[in-house]
Amino acid sequence: MGEVSYQFTDDTVVVTGGSSGIGRAIALAFGEAGATVINADVRVDPKLDARPTHEQIRDSGGTARHVETDVRDPDELLALAELAADHGGLDVFVNNAGVFEEVPFLEADEATLDAHYGVNVKGVYFGCQAAARTMSDRGGAIVNVASISSRVAQGGLVHYEASKGAVEMITRGAAFELAERGIRVNAVAPGVVPTELYDGYSEKYQTEAERAELVKPIPMARPGTPDEVADATLFLASDAASYTTGTLLFVDGGWTVL
Ligand SMILES: NC(=O)c1ccc[n+]([C@@H]2O[C@H](COP(=O)([O-])OP(=O)(O)OC[C@H]3O[C@@H](n4cnc5c(N)ncnc54)[C@H](O)[C@@H]3O)[C@@H](O)[C@H]2O)c1
């Protein structure tokens, strides 16, 4: 977390895909801010030299648990949201789980599209729905993890870009329908953030010249960090964003200014 901190004491927060990368940083930040955190991921292992997310939050004195969840299954998402509600009411639901593979458009097949839509679109759509069906009359906040790919084409990513474009419209459409229930729905849109998902992509960028090429479209001339995305997520989930709904907050070093 940066210098600004938000308090989520007594709040129950679900983060999907919180075992790794951006989701892990988001889950840890909510834990630090006093929330009860439920990490919903297909796996526990962070595949790093690090403790699993829920254990790390507990080690720091917080409250957290892992619930094995496949976000491609709407029933699992509803069961997850109901379980979270049993912890004193569901307050925040972060749809972060996502998959990413670079495949040239002419080589992509139905399986490529299904794999990306299953997690990135269905997971977010039914995650929003499960959260909204379960949140109490006091409302709540949903934050989806979109991408610069919601708006920008980069090559080899049509399937991913289409899925992240859908995340933007799920965010806006759900914000519209859920406003009357006191539920705000927003999205963060990261640019390049080194994580496990991004690792395969970054294999192309080994030399100094290649790395310079990678940051060329970024006015701030550097990749972002998972913590910087977490900061934006906590802002959107907090009362500081009480009049903000249906927005996409870019955390991209200025990539999308042009
Ligand atoms: N890293 C970047 O540069 C970047 C940029 C823009 C957007 N994003 C988005 O940020 C989000 C997180 O990405 P990351 O870079 O931290 O990736 P990551 O691979 O490090 O983490 C993704 C997590 O999602 C989990 N997951 C995958 N499929 C799942 C499923 N079916 N059900 C439940 N969990 C599942 C994985 O187990 C993993 O823990 C994704 O939505 C991604 O599209 C990442």
Ordered list of secondary-structure elements with their pairings:
Blueprint: E1 12-16, H1 21-32, E2 36-41, H2 53-59, E3 63-68, H3 74-85, E4 92-95, H4 110-134, E5 140-145, H5 158-178, E6 183-190, H6 196-202, H7 208-215, H8 226-237, E7 248-251
Parallel strand pairs: 1-2, 1-4, 2-3, 4-5, 5-6, 6-7
Helix pairs in contact: 1-2, 1-8, 3-4, 4-5
The structure holds nicotinamide-adenine-dinucleotide.
Features:
single chain; 258 residues; alpha/beta; Rossmann fold; seven-stranded parallel β-sheet; 8 helices; globular; binds nicotinamide-adenine-dinucleotide
Report on this structure.
- This protein has 258 residues and is of the alpha/beta class.
- It has one domain: Rossmann fold (3-Layer(aba) Sandwich), CATH 3.40.50.720.
- The protein has eight helices and seven strands, in the order βαβαβαβαβαβαααβ.
- Strand 4, helix 4 and strand 5 form a beta-alpha-beta unit.
- Helix 1 packs across helix 8, helix 3 packs parallel to helix 4 and helix 4 packs parallel to helix 5.
- The model has no long low-confidence stretch (mean pLDDT 94).
- The structure holds nicotinamide-adenine-dinucleotide.
- Nicotinamide-adenine-dinucleotide binds next to helix 1 and helix 6.
- The fold-level CATH name is Rossmann fold
Q: In the CATH classification, which architecture applies?
A: 3-Layer(aba) Sandwich
Order of strands across the biggest sheet? 3-2-1-4-5-6-7
**Helix segment count?**
8
Instruction: List the helices and strands in order.
Output: EHEHEHEHEHEHHHE
Low-confidence stretches: none
The level-1 CATH class: Alpha Beta
What Rg, in angstroms, do the CA atoms define?
17 Å
Report the end-to-end length measured between terminal Cα atoms.
28 Å
Overall number of domains: 1
| Molecular shape | globular
For the largest beta-sheet, the strand count, sense and barrel status come to: 7 strands, parallel
Mean pLDDT across residues:
94
The portion of residues forming beta strands comes to: 15-25%
| Helix content, binned percent | 40-55%
Small-molecule components bound: nicotinamide-adenine-dinucleotide
Count of DSSP strands: 7
